[in-house]
Amino acid sequence: MRKDHKKELWDYLQNNPGWHTSSELAVVIGVSQRSIKRYAKDLIDTAAIFVSSEGYKANQKKVNSTTKRNSDYESIKRVLINEFTQQENLNLYDLADQFYLSESTILKLLREIQLYVKPFDLELRQNGDNWSLLGSEMDKRKLISDILYRESKQTFIGNDTIQDSFPDINVIQISEAIKKLTMIENIYLNTFDFNNILLHIAIATHRIKNGYQSQNSEKDNDEKTVIQNDNRENNQEQSFGNKLIDFVENAEHIHFSESERQSLILIIQFSITRKHRDLEDNVKHSTIVLVDNLIKYVNSMLNIDLRVLNFREQFAIHIQRLLERSSHGYVERNPMTAKIRKSSPIIYECAVLISNRMEEIEDITLEDDEIAYIAMHIGNAVSEYINDLHKLYVVVLMPDYQSDNDEFMSRLERLFSQDIVIGRVIHNPDMIDEVDYPRKIDFVIQVNSEYSLSGIRHANISQFLTQIDYKEVNQLITGLKHKQEKINFTNNLEKFFPKENFKIINSETNRDALFKMVCDELEQKSVVTTDFRNRLEAREKMSSTAFGRVAIPHSLQMVALKTQGYVVIDPKGINWDKDNNHVNLMFLLAINESNKQAYRNIFDDLSQIAVDPKNIALLVKSKTYDEFIKQLTALL
Asked: How far does the signal peptide extend, from start to end residue (predicted)?
């Protein structure tokens, strides 16, 4: 589908305040710098953006009317889908006149819509020049929900968005009713769940008001079965659902059929977060066993230990809800999916591993939205574990006559808890060498003493921890952490990406062709076996490894004969998936199980660099391997 690059440019500048160079914008939008300058000129002429030697930035006070032009092909596509859900037939030539587009362009849009609606068990059928959308009413409602999430551009769908979409409904009144009923029934709804219930109620109400009502005979209405948990909880959720539906019927003067009522109650049950009271009462034993299996699997694959009691309990509750949704074929939409994948690749990768393991054990299929929810639940635990591994190991050397040692140590730990682990307090410098420490000492904090500590980094401070003392320790931490990270990263780069595994392509290509070329090379060098390409494609089928303009493809299992990476730069873009997303930089990773710790480190380091478009713009400019490695190291 043709993209409106000028609108993409305007949206990016609006959502990312500050100055942006044309080279950075070219990478983000996926066009040449010359094209960026051409699009920018039109926006400058309307005072929508400013230009200077630093690049371009949005005029935040300017409302650009061009964003609503009919040349926004994605918007036209969504309008067409909405019309198909409301009319029996649409005529090709009438649509061409309506949108001022050629018949061939409209036909291309209709072909794309055919592919888009297929996963919803809907069919866009052609009969001469007329087209119609065939399928059940409940599936059409699922389609409408998906359209709204896409229109929201991965942000929260709240009252205003839903009200704008369904002006014939009093959304605010229904929203207030949900809030009131949650208090009465002692029901907890987080923001995602609240908006999800509100959206589905609004869609169902709007469709009934406009004469589209599901029939009891529809196959998807075997959803009458409600999920069975603790009886008290089940009754509480059913009571909440029935009271809410009764309110909507009275307020909006409509009537839900029995099948529609049961379908909405099921959605409400899936959306209610159960606060932890007692793990055994809330979650089946089989789910607890599954969660323990998942935690063990993540540790075996990524060396990330999630065996934290509170995490296990809360995660088990989420997995129980996920399994219940999956058993009924229901997917809970997540407005943060794209943002999570792009901003936290290592956390999202961990969620993909968990999802893949669940699919193997439970014989289910999980979509990206559900994977993103898993990422949200594991995010803090994964981040905290990785941060702890990056903390510096410190020994405190201080005289044993200090009477306020405990208070001093408490303050020290509080001030630097994010950066250091205090291994031990010693009173004699000889103990630095004599004691067997669990880790290599990164530096010593020497308190009220002036020992000569040759051969080891140290900071001299007072027992009062003044601003000067804080600055002394903080500067040492910053310098050491950066130096350590740079050394580790450089060592990993040389190990993972040999010079012969670096290629610059100056023509458009696609992911599959690239996988074939790289896998053939790696197979010839006895790095991977013949099935490695299939393993890469299986990982992409699970969830795309691309985020922004970068992709880090790899297999779900660490089965490479040797550990190596392969870098491909393509300034013109690699067509990565069926959604026509393009990437300019690919880090392909082939990992042997013996190098899983190094894999996690390199994946984490690369993803942290790659999430910033400015960094990608610099890397894509590289002309040689040495220039690329030098630039990559400098960006850490």
From this structure: none
pTM here? 0.70
Tokens of 362: 């439970």
Q: Which of 100, 103, 95, 135 is nearest to 116 (CA)?
A: 135
Q: How confident is the model at residue 374, as a pLDDT?
A: 94
Rounded distance between C-alpha atoms, residue 422 and residue 444, angstroms: 10
Q: What is the pLDDT of residues 115-137, one digit of tens each?
A: 989 988 999 999 999 999 999 99
**Cα angle: 524, vertex 526, 532; to 5 degrees:** 85
pLDDT at 511: 96
| Residue carrying the six token digits 């013109």 | 572
Tokens of 569: 């730069």
- Please tell me whether residues 77 and 64 are part of one structural domain: no
What whole-number distance in Å separates Cα of residue 279 and Cα of residue 230? 12
Within 13 Å of residue 298, how many CA atoms lie on the same side as its CB?
Answer: 26
Helix (H) or strand (E) holding 52: strand 49-52
Domain boundary among 113, 135, 157: 135
- In CATH, what number is assigned to the domain containing residue 256? 1.10.1790
User: Percentage of residues in the chain with pLDDT exceeding 70?
Assistant: 90
The SS3 call for residue 261 is helix
In a domain, 252, yes or no: yes
317 and 292, same structural domain? yes
Which stretches within 222-276 are classed as H helix?
231-252, 258-271
- Average pLDDT (184-193) is 85
- CATH number of the domain encompassing residue 445: 3.40.50.2300
One domain, residues 257 and 283: no
Asked, for residue 104, whether it belongs to a domain, the answer is yes
Q: What is the CATH number of the domain that holds 98?
A: 1.10.10.10
Spell out the residues 6+ positions from residue 233 whose beta carbon is closer than 8 angstroms to its own: 274
- CA 511 – CA 581 distance, rounded (Å): 10
User: Token pair for residue 118?
Assistant: 């297929």
Question: Is the same domain home to 264 and 307?
Answer: no
Pairing of strands 49-52, 55-58: antiparallel
SS3 category, 564: strand
Tell whether 383 is covered by a domain.
no
Residue 516 structure tokens: 């074939």
Q: Are 447 and 398 in contact (CB under 8 A)?
A: yes
What is the residue range of 326's domain? Answer: 279-372
Tokens of 406: 């405990």
- Rounded Cα distance, 117 and 198, in Å: 23
Give pLDDT, residue 156: 63
> Is 126 in a helix, a strand, or coil?
strand
Q: What does the block give as tokens for 461?
A: 């401070």
**Inter-residue contact 263 to 329 (CB < 8 Å):** no
How many domains in the chain? 6
pLDDT digits (tens, 9 = 90+) for 617-634: 999 999 999 999 999 988
